[in-house]
Amino acid sequence: MIPPGAPIVTAAQMRAAEEAVFRREPQLDVMERAGAAVAREAARFVHGSPILVLAGPGNNGGDAYVAARLLKAAGHDVAIAASGEPGTPAAREMHARWGGEVGSLYQARPRPVLVDGLFGTGLTRPLERGIAPVFAELVAAARFTLAIDLPSGLETDSGTDLGVPRGISATLALGALKPAHVLGAGLERCGHVLLADIGIPVESQWRTVTRPKLVAPGPRAHKYSRGLVVVVEGDMPGAARLAAHAAMAGGAGYTILACASDGGGGPDALVRHKIANGDDLADFLTEKRIGAVVIGPGLGRDRRAEGLLKAALGADLPLILDGDALTLLGKSAGAWLQRRNAATWLTPHAGEFERMFESDGDKITQTLAAASETRATVIHKGADTVIATPRGVVRVLAQASSWLSTAGTGDVLAGTLAAQVASGNKNAAEAAVWLHARAAALAGPAFIADALPMHLPQAISECL
Ligand SMILES: NC(=O)C1=CN([C@@H]2O[C@H](COP(=O)(O)OP(=O)(O)OC[C@H]3O[C@@H](n4cnc5c(N)ncnc54)[C@H](O)[C@@H]3O)[C@@H](O)[C@H]2O)[C@@H](O)CC1
Ligand SMILES: Nc1ncnc2c1ncn2[C@@H]1O[C@H](COP(=O)(O)OP(=O)(O)O)[C@@H](O)[C@H]1O
Ligand SMILES: [K+]
Fold this sequence. Notes:
Elements: H1 11-22, H2 27-43, E1 51-55, H3 59-73, E2 78-82, H4 89-98, E3 103-104, E4 113-117, H5 131-141, E5 144-148, E6 170-174, H6 186-189, E7 192-196, E8 206-208, H7 223-226, E9 228-232, H8 237-249, E10 254-259, E11 271-274, H9 278-284, E12 290-295, H10 303-314, E13 319-321, H11 323-329, H12 333-337, E14 344-346, H13 350-356, H14 363-374, E15 377-380, E16 385-388, E17 394-397, H15 409-422, H16 428-443, H17 456-461
Parallel strand pairs: 1-2, 1-4, 2-3, 4-5, 5-6, 6-7, 8-17, 9-10, 9-12, 10-11, 12-13, 13-14, 14-15
Antiparallel strand pairs: 15-16, 16-17
Helix pairs in contact: 2-3, 3-4, 8-15, 9-10, 11-13, 15-16
Adenosine-5'-diphosphate binds next to α15.
């Protein structure tokens, strides 16, 4: 579980937010609140078992000393093991307030409940070789492990594994989520992510994806007002049909498949419009009632595909580029897309993203750079899906059903997005990503992509 709609901040932003608070309130009071939140959360899982609290040298360790003191005062059997002496003034003070014995991490005996206060946002390098195996053993031997702020051994801003063990049950994020709670190795290593308000106001344009608020069609609605979606068919017609089906089930009023031939399956309500080449498509896309065009799923990469793509790029219509369209654009995506006036959405998976962009850094930074370079909203897919807009707004979806890792689900996302775009939803990308993930959850295990659109109406009904 990841809290929906929760702000996400980097280590530096969190520090800045903390420092702003310390100008009007003693740091020790804030740390008392953080430690109290940890103690409260840990107490829910203790059930009378002995607790081992691990304390590192920094303020994460400071929180650990507070939590240990409060748990002990509440009558629990608590032992502390530290990796060394407390190294910050606040941690030293909290160590003094603990007043009891502090064992060494290296001699610590496992206990059923473990609280990890070794490192939080201050971890700057891989866990030292001595620490990593001892910590991993204590986690493995515990029935329940609660990590303070972050599991020790995760890089805060990227979620990179710097020696973090497996098996952490829950992580209590302090004040705000950090990228590591929703990206990379953090996805698997944080366990349940809980968020504690510790009285530090944070401002962020980055949040986790939350359930959208959608509206049912008004009494005067007609098929065009609901949104007209055009999906361009290419070499692999099945992919375009999946997108078209998703657009229909995702709420579009009218969906047209721009196709090379008349034949082919698909729902009866799907309208086919024959187009031979790029010129034909360019003519067709002068129809002003079109609310969104999808091109890329199963498009192919030959001359015809290139012609179709150029026609779509040249149309003054909202455009969703997926699959082969992204690969065809490759590194020239920025040059092509900056010329467009109408809005553009890109839905690359990791491989397509790499073919298009040079950027490095964590997934959020890379996706923001791509959005800025292309002036498009970028939905960078994967187990952690990062949405970034050119204005710097970020939404992250973590922990969607891993059964989505099957061919064709990306086509379904492109169609779902088209329906939201065509209906005029200003937050189309976030809504589509939520609906897609919810449809997958409703579909249960081992679904095929064809089955996914059928669950979109139920997902939509939960947003009305
Ligand atoms: N500033 C504050 O008063 C507050 C801080 N909070 C807590 O403080 C944490 C951040 O505290 P800090 O900035 O002190 O950082 P940490 O406590 O996360 O760790 C920093 C310390 O670890 C050492 N270190 C870093 N990487 C290491 C490695 N690989 N091996 C061994 N040692 C390593 C550093 O030299 C430094 O001594 C947050 O995650 C949160 O838990 C909360 O209590 C809220 C208030
Ligand atoms: N392990 C996973 N956990 C959650 N979501 C996943 C996982 N793997 C893939 N997905 C999602 O499934 C979809 C796959 O899209 P894509 O790779 O484009 O597939 P295709 O091209 O076959 O349609 C994306 O929405 C992606 O975010
Ligand atoms: K920790």
